[in-house]
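Researcher: Structure prediction, please.
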Amino acid sequence: MIVYYDGVCALCNRFVRWALRNDPQGRLRFAALDSTHGEQLRQAYPATRDVDSIVVHDGERVYLRSDAIFRIWRELGGVWRIATLSRIVPRAMRDRMYDLIARRRYRWFGRFDVCPIPPSEVRDRFLS
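Model: Predicted structure follows.
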């Protein structure tokens, strides 16, 4: 499973670091949306072209917005799987909240000038 993220977004980078800490088995891989892999994803799945935060690609399927977060939690398992119970909230409401945060994420959390280089101990989990 590949998690695509906004490489210059401080919130997205914090989320990636959190996911790395909570995925000791190394099931998740990561790529910036503006990387070569991200561009290939956007070409293969037109629904991802306007998304600029988090996208999950799991085999032949992509997950956007709140569904992407739920898919990551499910993959991590354990206590995080319990968080997926919040899916009882209708998708439209979840995605509205997600979009609200996504639109303001640079203002609230900041942004980097360039995508940070991952630490060497996890660099093999990032697609260039």
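Model: Strands lie at 2-5, 29-32, 54-58, 61-64.
Researcher: Thanks, that helps.
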